[in-house]
Amino acid sequence: QVQLVESGGGLVQAGGSLRLSCAASIRTFMAMGWFRQAPGKEREFVAVINWSGGSTDYADSVKGRFTISRDNAKNMVYLQMNSLRPEDTAVYYCAVKLGLEMFRDEYDYWGKGTQVTVSS
Asked: 49 - beta bridge partners?
């Protein structure tokens, strides 16, 4: 069983930045992704990074503003969020998909989430 623990959420003004972190309890070949769910909306894909860190994918809504990265030595994945907007307000979840492939869905394990609130 993989445990994922997110941190770094908080309240920030529009235009500001936050950096989310996620610690995984195992080290193996796995893609690591970030998802978010706003009140009253379905959970949506934000970003993913493959096992080596050499490939990334982003939702159009965050492309150019968010950057996903990982440190395999520390079993960590990060999401640097810049130029934040009120519509970025959501609970952000870290997720893991075991294996060498990188997808936007069908993840195997999920964290409990961290709240990000962007005020206007």
From this structure: 32, 56
Tell me how far apart the alpha carbons of residues 110 and 100 are, in angstroms, rounded to a whole number: 18
For residues 48 and 5, give the distance between their C-alpha atoms in angstroms, rounded to a whole number: 16
The separation between CA 69 and the C-alpha centre of its own chain, rounded to angstroms, equals 9
The rounded distance, in Å, linking the Cα atoms of 70 and 32 is 8
Single out the residue of 63, 70, 80, 75 nearest to residue 102, CA to CA: 70
pLDDT along the chain (120 residues), means of 10: 94 98 93 97 97 96 98 96 98 95 92 97
Written as six digits, the tokens of 54 are 């050499």
